[in-house]
Amino acid sequence: MSNQRKSTVLLEHHLKQLKLPTMLKAYLLLAQSCAQEKCDYPTYLLRLCEKELADRQKRAMDRRIQAARFPLLKTMDSFDFSAQSSINEPLIRELLRCEFIDHQENVLLMGNSGTGKTHLATALGFAACCQGYKVRFFGCSSLVTCLLEAREDRQLQKLLTQLEKQHLLILDELGYVPFSKAGSELLFEVISRAYERQSLVVTSNLPFENWTEVCGSERLTGAMLDRLTHRVHIIEANGPSYRLAESRKRLARRKKNKDQN
Ligand code: ADP
Ligand code: MG
């Protein structure tokens, strides 16, 4: 084996051992382009490291997005503020910078069904994943079910510890399904553990005065709201349902097509 071939084999082996897959893939081509540009050795090495670092950051971001388990990936790019004029756009833009997570503040998205609350909560979570935060999305009811099941299986502490490791928890759709007494108490446990340690984004179709209907006891609901709203940004979406508007438009288009044929 020639010396050069030996070096190549060893280099590739070392890059694999060091877990530098992008360097492994890119080092030859980059060497050729750097030779053409007459770059010095440190510049070549710098460019190679930059490639590895960029790929590594992208892979970590993809992992965080996967781990967040968004039901559907919605971002701000596809949100039409003109369709929902009740929403405070400057506040949303500010929240997208994720400083609220650094300050362990909460976000409450309130309003009727179809006004984009889940979309906005997901978009905030997505922005947080892109900026390096650990996020986990839950429908409120399924979180309560998970908590109840975990308690039955003696896995509750494990689940609570997993939740505590997140920077941001998204609790979607509080208000559609009332919780059992035990369910409300476990949800309260999550909210009170998160208090001043993590951020919560909660979406709800119910005004605060009706939360007792889903959480049961007035005392527990009061304590829950107290923690949630201590340091909170409230976004109200009180416009028309986007879903309804879209399906009306679709129906109108179909009717128009039918009339034309
Ligand atoms: P909510 O959680 O308030 O019931 P969703 O966020 O689930 O509403 O919105 C319902 C559907 O309408 C989703 O597909 C969402 O992406 C879309 N949607 C709602 N509001 C807007 C908007 N302003 N711009 C673009 N899409 C929207
Ligand atoms: Mg929703």
Architecture overview:
The protein is α/β, with parallel strands linked by helices. Helix content is 61%, strand content 11%. The protein has helices at 3-17, 21-37, 41-68, 89-95, 99-102, 117-130, 140-152, 156-164, 181-194, 211-215, 218-230, 242-260, and strands at 106-111, 135-139, 168-174, 199-204, 232-237. The chain is extended and about 80 Å long. Adenosine-5'-diphosphate (ADP) binds at residues 74, 78-80, 83-84, 113-119, 203, 242-243. Adenosine-5'-diphosphate binds at residues 74, 78-80, 83-84, 113-119, 203, 242-243.
How confident overall, as mean pLDDT?
94
Q: Whole-number radius of gyration?
A: 25 Å
Give the H and E element order.
HHHHHEHEHHEHEHHEH
Major sheet: arrangement of strands: 2-3-4-1-5
Spans with pLDDT under 50 lasting ≥5 residues? none
**What structural class is derived from the secondary structure elements?**
alpha/beta
Helix content: 55-70%
Distance between the termini: 76 Å
Could you give the count of β-strands? 5
Number of helices: 12
